[in-house]
Every structure is written in structure tokens, then in C-alpha cells.
Specification:
The complex is a heterodimer of chains A (88) and B (130). Chain A is an alpha+beta fold and 88 residues long. Chain A is 34% helix and 26% strand. Chain A has 3 helices and 4 strands, in the order βαββαβα. In chain A, strands 1-4-2-3 form a 4-stranded antiparallel sheet, covered by helices on one side. The longest helix of chain A is centred in the last third of the chain and has 13 residues, at 70-82. Chain A is globular and about 35 Å long. The mean pLDDT of chain A is 94. Chain B is of the alpha/beta class. Chain B has one domain: 3-Layer(aba) Sandwich (Rossmann fold), CATH 3.40.50. Chain B has helices spanning 11-21, 45-55, 69-80, 83-86, 96-108, 113-122, and strands spanning 3-8, 30-34, 61-65, 89-91. Chain B has a 4-stranded parallel sheet, sandwiched between helices. Chain B is globular. The termini of chain B are far apart. The model of chain B has no long low-confidence stretch (mean pLDDT 95). Classes of the chains: A alpha+beta (88), B alpha/beta (130). At the A-B interface, helix 1 and helix 2 of A face helix 5 of B.
């Protein structure tokens, strides 16, 4: 398992569009990907789950990936989050 | 990419849902259709048929409807399509707004019609408050 903690820096948090960007990127990988916030764990490949997590600016989330390309998945998704999804 | 048609009793509602859903993937063909031929609240099978044809590509079209007669008139619209078109069009049981959002994300990822339909229908069980 590959795991990292990410701080959400973009203004609007994981609202619809960033959540969609996250899910699209997550689906490029074979690995099983989950997000956790405050003890709630959701499937990182499902838009329904990711947007329901209610992640706002300043919150931290745990990103976990299990599978052959887990390391690449965590790296790519971390980059997306840390680059604020191309937003402010 | 799978196309998406949003059928509501109100054109404004359909267009609003389209606006939200397209935030999730700009390239996905989405059509909004609603209201009767004389602009009242309701649905019009001919307008729905034209909306389907407008987004029809080789990957097919998922149809999302609001309530009651929208279902019946959408089924009628599908029957009005050419035979080969009918096989590529699927009516979804998904909630119209949540389903549209999911469908556009799934379509943008290149998933097929069956996968897009299945994911959109999972929105029925969506918990808004985790």
C-alpha cells in the first residue's frame, strides 16, 4: 500500500469540477484508490463518493492506493491536488 | 464518447442540469430538452427525438428523465428513431441531476454506454451526507 497525506489548497476544495478531475485521473490506474477524511473512507474512482466527502480548502485527506501501479497513482494524484487542479 | 440527453418537464431545469453536468467534462456531448411544443411544462416526443439525434455518435446515448410523462415521451421518442439508432440509446433509471453529473464524468473517461448507465444509476444510492 502506498499512502500520503494531502492538504487541499485550492479555493473551492474538492467540489464538483476538481472532484471530477481527481476521479478521471484515478481511473487511469489499475490500483485500488481510496480517500479518507475524518474516519470516512471512500472510493477515489467514484465521483459520487469523492464529492460526497465534502472536502474544503485547508482540509487534509489521506490518499491510499493498493496495486501494481499504486506508486504512480499516488504521485499523479498528489501532483493534481498540490497543483490546485489548475485553479486558484 | 457516450452522449447524454437530459429530459425535464421544464427546459430551464434541463438546461440548468446540463450546465452543471458539463462542468465535469466539457467535451462530452450533452443535450437539454424540456417543455411542450407550445412552451408549457411537459415534454414533447419529437423534441426529445431531435435532441437524441443531436448528440448521437458511435458510442451511443444515455437518456436521463425527470418524472412521469417524461418517461413515456422519451420511450416514444426512442421508438421514433431509425432502427439502428434504437440499439444505441438507453433510458436510465438514474436521478436526473446526480445521474447527469456521473454520466458526464464516466463518458469523459471513455467508458462505454453500459458502464456509463451503471455508474449513473448508482447515484440512486448516493449519500449526500457521509
Amino acid at each position: 500500500m502506498v499512502e500520503t497525506t494531502l492538504k487541499i489548497k485550492n479555493k473551492s476544495g474538492l467540489h464538483l469540477r476538481p472532484a471530477a478531475e481527481f476521479v478521471k485521473k484515478a481511473n487511469e490506474f489499475q490500483a485500488n484508490i481510496t480517500l479518507e477524511r475524518g474516519g470516512k473512507v471512500v472510493n477515489g474512482k467514484s465521483i459520487i463518493h469523492v464529492q460526497a466527502l465534502g472536502v474544503r480548502q485547508g482540509m487534509t485527506i489521506n490518499l491510499r492506493a493498493v496495486g501494481v501501479d499504486a506508486e504512480d497513482a499516488v504521485a499523479a494524484l498528489s501532483e493534481l491536488v498540490n497543483n490546485k487542479f489548475g485553479e486558484e | 464518447m457516450v452522449g447524454v440527453v437530459i429530459v425535464s418537464h421544464s427546459l430551464k431545469a434541463a438546461e440548468g442540469i446540463k450546465e452543471i453536468a458539463q462542468q465535469m467534462g466539457r467535451d462530452v456531448p450533452v443535450a437539454a430538452v424540456g417543455g411542450t411544443a407550445d412552451g408549457q411544462i411537459g415534454t414533447d416526443p419529437l423534441a426529445i427525438k431531435e435532441a437524441i439525434e443531436g448528440v448521437m455518435g458511435s458510442d451511443g446515448v444515455l437518456l436521463l428523465v425527470d418524472l412521469g410523462s417524461a418517461v413515456l415521451n422519451t420511450q416514444l421518442a426512442v421508438e421514433m428513431l431509425e432502427d439502428e439508432g434504437q440499439d444505441q440509446v438507453v433510458l436510465s433509471n438514474a436521478p436526473i441531476l446526480e445521474g447527469a453529473v456521473v454520466a458526464v464524468v464516466e463518458s469523459a473517461m471513455g467508458h462505454n454506454l453500459e458502464q456509463v448507465k451503471k455508474a449513473a444509476e448508482e447515484a440512486i444510492h448516493m449519500e449526500k451526507l457521509l
